[in-house]
Design goal:
Blueprint lengths: L1 H19 L11 H26 L1 H9 L4 H10 L2 H13 L4 H21 L16
Helix pairs in contact: 2-4, 2-5, 3-6
Length: 137
């Protein structure tokens, strides 16, 4: 009987202590400009990713990536996992490339370099020749 009282007392204290701490909810209204800017940024990023994926789906780009040892599906998955900043950097770099026949080689080279850097950093595991150090593989 005493043990039940003691256990119920401990449970009451624990439940009371848990109900005391309630994190404050933080809510605020956002302005129309901020909401529109966020929506436009989201649409821009979606279009930029779609542009990169469309480039990677081209047969000539896929063939060039295969020559570098990169599977086109892995490259598309990496583009999907890129941050907004990485997508913007890659699109900016591709816009600076000359038009014409060198464009495909340049795009493939830029994608290869981005994938290589992310592989070296440990975010991906695409290239077998990259040494990831101990603990990986």
């Amino acid at each position: 009987m005493k043990i039940r009282r003691w256990i119920s007392g401990v449970i009451v204290i624990c439940l009371s202590a848990m109900s005391v701490y309630v994190p404050a909810a933080n809510a605020a209204l956002i302005g129309t400009r901020d909401a529109v800017a966020a929506l436009q940024h989201q649409q821009t990023m979606r279009a930029a990713r779609a542009h990169l994926v469309a480039l990677l789906e081209r047969k000539d780009v896929a063939a060039q990536l295969e020559n570098y040892g990169v599977n086109a599906t892995d490259a598309q998955q990496r583009v999907a996992a890129m941050s907004d900043q990485e997508v913007q950097q890659l699109n900016t770099r591709m816009d600076q490339l000359p038009a014409g026949g060198d464009d495909i080689l340049g795009v493939a080279l830029v994608v290869f370099l981005v994938l290589l850097i992310t592989d070296i950093a440990g975010y991906t595991d695409i290239f077998p020749f990259v040494n990831h150090g101990s603990g990986r593989r």
